[in-house]
Amino acid sequence: MPKDTRTHFRTSSTWDVAVVGGGNAALCAAITAAETGARVVILESAPKSYRGGNSRHTRNFRCMHRGPLSVLSDAYTEEEYFDDLMLVTERNTDEGLARMVIRNSEECLPWMESKGVRFQPPLSGTLSLSRTNAFFLGGGKALVNAYYHTAENLGVTTMYNAEVMHVEMEDDTANAVIVQIDGEAHRIEAKGFVLASGGFQSNLEWLTRAWGPAAANFLIRGTPYNRGVVLNDMLEQGCESVGDPTQCHAVAIDGRAPKFDGGIVTRLDCVPFSVVLNKDGERFYDEGEDVWPKRYAIWGRLVAAQPEQVAYSIIDSNSIDLFMPSVFPASKSHTLEGLAKQLGLDEKKMIETVTAYNKACQAGEFNATGLDGLSTKSLTPPKTNWARPIVKPPFYGYELRPGVTFTYLGLKVSEKAQVQTPTGPLTNVWAGGEIMAGSILGKGYLAGFGMAIGTVFGRIAGKEAAIYVNA
Amino acid sequence: MLMPDQMQEARRQVEICNACRYCEGYCSVFPSIMREKSFSDGDLTHLANLCHNCQGCFYACQYTEPHEFALNLPAILAEVRQESWERLAMPQSVARVMHRRGGAIAGLSVAAFAVFFVLMQWMMPEDGVGFYAHLSHVAMITLFTPAFLLPLVSVAFSLRAYWREVEGGKFRLRYFLAACKDAANMRNLSGGQGQGCNYEDEDRFSNMRRWFHQATMYGFLLCFASTSSGTIMHYLFAMPAPYALFSLPKILGVSGGVLLVIGCFGLAWLKTKADPALGAKNILSGEYAFIFLLGATGLTGLMLYAATGTGFVGGLLAVHLGFVLTLFLLIPFSKMAHGFYRMTALTAEAAKHANAN
Ligand SMILES: Cc1cc2nc3c(=O)[nH]c(=O)nc-3n(C[C@H](O)[C@H](O)[C@H](O)COP(=O)(O)OP(=O)(O)OC[C@H]3O[C@@H](n4cnc5c(N)ncnc54)[C@H](O)[C@@H]3O)c2cc1C
Ligand code: SF4
Ligand code: SF4
Prior knowledge:
The structure holds 2 protein chains of 2 kinds. Chain A folds into 2 domains: 6-245 and 408-470, FAD/NAD(P)-binding domain (3-Layer(bba) Sandwich); 250-403, Flavocytochrome C3, Chain A, domain 1 (Alpha-Beta Complex). In chain A, 30% of the residues lie in helices and 22% in strands. Chain A is built from 11 helices and 19 strands. Chain A has helices at 3-11, 24-34, 78-89, 95-114, 140-153, 204-211, 229-236, 292-304, 336-343, 347-360, 449-470; strands at 14-20, 40-43, 60-62, 119-120, 133-136, 157-159, 162-170, 173-181, 184-195, 219-220, 241-242, 248-254, 275-278, 311-315, 331-333, 395-407, 410-411, 418-421, 424-431. Chain B is mainly alpha-helical. The longest helix of chain B is centred in the middle third of the chain and has 29 residues, at 137-165. At the A-B interface, helix 5 of A face helix 1 and helix 4 of B. Residues 16-17, 20-23, 57, 60-63, 71, 73 of chain B line the site of one iron/sulfur cluster (SF4).
């Protein structure tokens, strides 16, 4: 701990607001509260170099706008935004809260800019999002850095390596948090508490309990620090939960990615132009069912259901330039045998599957940028678009594994971000971000919505906490 | 010297960036990366010379150490860039020493002072006014003409080799003009939106470096214009020095000198606050020596002007001319070269951009 925080820590036995977590939602809450003059402390379990949780991996913010706004063109209305959300969540959402987030997102964008966040035109390869999503210049870590500076300028104290283990409750009021700092437990009192410590996706034990032993083979796309300690603690103390405890959002990512924190670069966009085999060398799903942005999120589950939670995407030279570059070079061989060997697949079986697929391919017009209806004939499972034979060496292969983005289970909150119990809200505990996102997002995911929830609810939590402590 | 695996390391990092693209809006490097899928050594040299080391992409990167991807793009590009300047210099061996050893630059400067002291002792002109009372115009021209032109010839050859290496393609004036525009406002130190770079205060943005660099660059150009205008007045209009205060050479020279001194000492001061882990290794002494050389050239020029009519002129003149000579001789072999490579890289980038569209 740096010297100045240490003295602060000793002298300030009681804070106005203690914010648990150090990502987007936590920072929005801390800044909003500190602007009213409240004395705010941020308790971030990560060291400074890893501050910012999953927010440091993000790239954009989905934003409603009635006309052109900053880098966003045209308009994106509440109705359209809401329809997009309904589509992906299959109506698993709390309409009131969802509409509140959507409506609020519009005023968030200028607020974010005023707190130092910078936006840029959509990244190359993401033009489809140019109207709906505002991209952060430099990505989520640049956003997080900007917020930390703003918070620091407002006098907010940040403690790193400070993991909150327990929220000390007395009836429906919290008095203090027990924090592990450099291996030592401390008790930190405050008048109000904002919980913004993310989901539990990095807690492999919890994931295994929810998903079964297969979860041990999952890769976690974001921070290793979101272990759900506070979420679990609050649930154990009787707070209400929302969201399916057994579900997580998972996509198929490069199997060579690190166990944690691989982030955006480990994604692979090759599936629609490939055949995907499991460990036994067999196909198991229609690779060309729909365009990739609409399908990438189901492939996490699909791969998770295969033996050893692994799959292999095979393409040839005709298709290697059709998708965004991968973070690691693909396995490459001039023969299918060679590729099978490199990927650790049974050579005979792999060639058999690819040959059967090639035979089932039909003549027709191939079009990489839209559904082309180029489908296999009498093959199970079929490949219903982009079914071109895999014949042109060199051949390329990628190992796929499920990469978990976030978990759905969270704390139930009110419109004012108050944490709920079966007998009503807690008096001085608010929540923002992933820890309560299940209140709005029961299923599926809409790009840029995580940051929208965190920004809107982080700000509400900060504001409500400030009103409470300043009263 | 660059290890072969450093090129490989640059390639590894650039490929990660190409899969990420979060930093696209910071500078010209990322759009250039995003045009390619694989990167030859020439491509990497091009990217390295486009990078202005604003460090924005380091502080914004979610993959810096302790992350196992260990991204540090400013540092690895600085290595590749530094190596390209040393490798392409002619003769290479001189650049290898001068770029890295502040002591060598200091040594050369002292030798140059000595040359002028000796010249002034032995060849004191019979007549002449102002500076020419100490060293004749003919002697100055005889010494400085080759000392200026030969280094430029060397640089020209290096740039040709560079252009081939990065496959700049067909040269057009409009590419060069685009490069001039980028350099004129240091667009690549602007952070993409004018917030500046991350340099002297970790991840906080500031335009200090951009401003000091502008002061240095424009100061140097003004001094150069001052000398050129003097030469033109001397030969074309038969108006030899010394010039009055409100003459073109003086106005250009004094304002340029002031800017140059402020810029150089500002840059050196900022450098003391920056994180050396984000630049090339083992060049710090060379870099500091160079920036002091440039600043001292401006400072002694100003002092010389202030000392007009006093007994200090002789000594100061020898020191000033010594610095100028050193600076000229080091054009191909010191940080001085970066301006030429930078312009060439920006020109090549304009060409590549135009050809891709
Ligand atoms: C690779 C990737 C890319 C994504 N891209 C986008 C995108 O482009 N747009 C978008 O909207 N969403 C995106 N998301 C989702 C987005 O990251 C989340 O919705 C959002 O970051 C949640 O913010 P948060 O503040 O709630 O949580 P986080 O940012 O994860 O912050 C949680 C914080 O709590 C800290 N913490 C955890 N436990 C404790 C404890 N016990 N004590 C103290 N501190 C603790 C953590 O260290 C961390 O700082 C992406 C997610 C991933 C993984
Ligand atoms: S420097 Fe880091 S954040 Fe920026 S593009 Fe490269 S990998 Fe992405
Ligand atoms: S250091 Fe600055 S100029 Fe260099 S690549 Fe990074 S962002 Fe671009």
